[in-house]
Amino acid sequence: MEVAAAFRWQAEACARLGSPMYGELLHxxxxxxxxxxxxxxxxxxxxxxxxxxxxxxxxxxGSVHRVVLRGRAPALAHHYPSTGGRWELAAAxxxxxxxxxxxxxxxxxxxxxxxxxxxxxxxxxxxxxxxxVVAATGRPVRLLEIGASxxxxxxxxxxxxxxxxxxxxxxxxxxxxxxxxxxxxxxxxPDVDVDVVERTGVDIAPLDPTTEEGRLTLQSYVWPDQAERxxxxxxxxAVARDVPAPxxxxxxxxxxxxxALREGTVTVLWHSVMWQYLSAEERAGVETEIAALGxxxxxxxxxxxxxxxxxxxxxxxxxxxxxxxxxWPEGEQRVLGRAVPHGVPVRWE
Length: 349
Description:
Strand order of the largest sheet: 3-2-4-11-10-9-8-7-1-5-6
Radius of gyration: 21 Å
Structural class: alpha/beta
Number of domains: 2
Helix content: 40-55%
Distance between the termini: 37 Å
Low-confidence stretches: none
């Protein structure tokens, strides 16, 4: 996709998903690209052929946000809601463009990194699905997350989920730093206790949420005018300080291939909105390894595959963000519910 068109597509997507700020800003960047703005073009040089799924627009926006959060762009910070400012495109654009000029080398380097949107809201879908797994097996849980980023959602059992109806109902520690109001609608997941005895993640470019650099990177990819997302991310970072969940630098296929089941526990492989970033060959390989794990599962050592991904219920239908669960040894697969891209709310079926 041509660069300006890619930015316009992302601008419209951001606007639909509740970020009018990025909707306006990315349209303005697209105009600058089309007009041949030398500052914008210099930063984006070498990325003209980047594929759509690489999210160039979000990488650029996140890189600038990172500079702002580090306190290195005070003029622009006055316009960023995440730093207490008020967004106005006409007033902010000159300062935004100046950040590109002054910090070109840093931003150019940051553009080489994949976006790390460890979206905490998606825990609402994953945790609800996990309650179904525990209700069916009654066993302690071993978690493996592929495409885990910083592994924040591996701590999903330490978050609080409020049900939209009835008001006041929910699941999880009431005093958790992460509270997801209205996270669940429809038939609530089973209300059972969960004992997570092992939590591990893998990612090709993992982040450490216990470090300043890791926290800064994660916050930079939250859209600055979405205060609720930023608040739940910061809450999850607080949980991460107390609940270990290592994320190893490893590809999804080799991690699933190395996964072993253990008697007396239920092994759960989960992931959210990462499938699209795998090659077709790697997706096929992961699916083969999952099927092999299912074949090895037993009543004493059950296995579950839980995912939140944009999927089609049947060929020809529009994609939905479905919460899909398959459990072995039975091998039954179910659609548990559907969510929105950032996870909240989840409507259970």
